[in-house]
Amino acid sequence: MLNQIKGLHHVTSIASDAAENNAFFTKALGLRRVKKTVNFDAPDVYHLYYGDEVGTPGSVMTYFPFHDAARGRHGTGEVGETVFSVPKGSLGFWGHRLGAAAADVEKVSHFGEDRVKFRTFDGESFAVAEVADDTRGAWTGNGIDADHAIRGFHGATMRLQDTGAMAELLQFMGYQKAETRDNVTRFIIEGGTGADTIDLESLKTTPHASQGAGSVHHIAFAVENRAAQLEVRKALLDTGYQVTPVIDRDYFWAIYFRTPGGILFEVATNEPGFDRDEDRAYLGEALKLPTQHERLRPFLEQNLQPLGD
């Protein structure tokens, strides 16, 4: 069993409109945009990162906003819901705020946690969950104070036709099986980023998802550094997974592998961080480009959609 994984690092999804995406995550959810850059493989598309003040691992939601992308079809073989942590007593605030900004807003209880579920304009599923012992700092602003602001991720739900192989993988990665209620089994990792829960939802007869706007592209797990990442990569290769070489993503190093249920996993380093090329006071303000795409700056600055900051 691995001991290098420290919970979630980030979650990356697909959106259909960059300005709407930016407005929802910075204004409605009150997160900070910590990086404005572009997709390494499609530089005419933004890669936008939202999180706490410095983009701490376990707090960062990222997006590829492909303009007018068709909406994905939800189903199995995907991350079906991403869950943020908020302070106890804040759900009334979030229910009211999201009622004006999101769709299908509903208060629910899940594994004894009070939550507000909601969907974005692209139909992506989220929830905010009251977590009593989350001491992480929060980014405040846009009418959200520290008593209500998002602390980071709480976890995510993965929807699968068969959860057996994924359960084995999570336990190999250091997660411990905690509890099963109805068709959902919870796994928890100790001593991580605070984003430490994964729920596996068994939906045996539900068709597979089809990726598009409103779909999670991949989910990333955190390791402290490159040495730990190489240890994880070797262990995964030895177990039979096909894992990419280490890829430099400017703000972290990444490896990727496809899980048995079809979900794309990433293992990302906590180093070097989002302040490697910007002062912390100005994170996310300037367009930052990977070195290989710097030559495209005049074109990109003219043609990328204005975000309406």
UniProtKB/TrEMBL annotation:
Pfam families: Glyoxalase (PF00903). Residues 7-131, 152-270 form the VOC domain. It comes from the Bacteria. InterPro entries: Extradiol_RC_dioxygenase (IPR052537), Glyas_Bleomycin-R_OHBP_Dase (IPR029068), Glyas_Fos-R_dOase_dom (IPR004360), VOC_core (IPR037523). PANTHER family: RING-CLEAVING DIOXYGENASE MHQE-RELATED (PTHR36110). This is Glyoxalase family protein. It comes from Loktanella atrilutea.
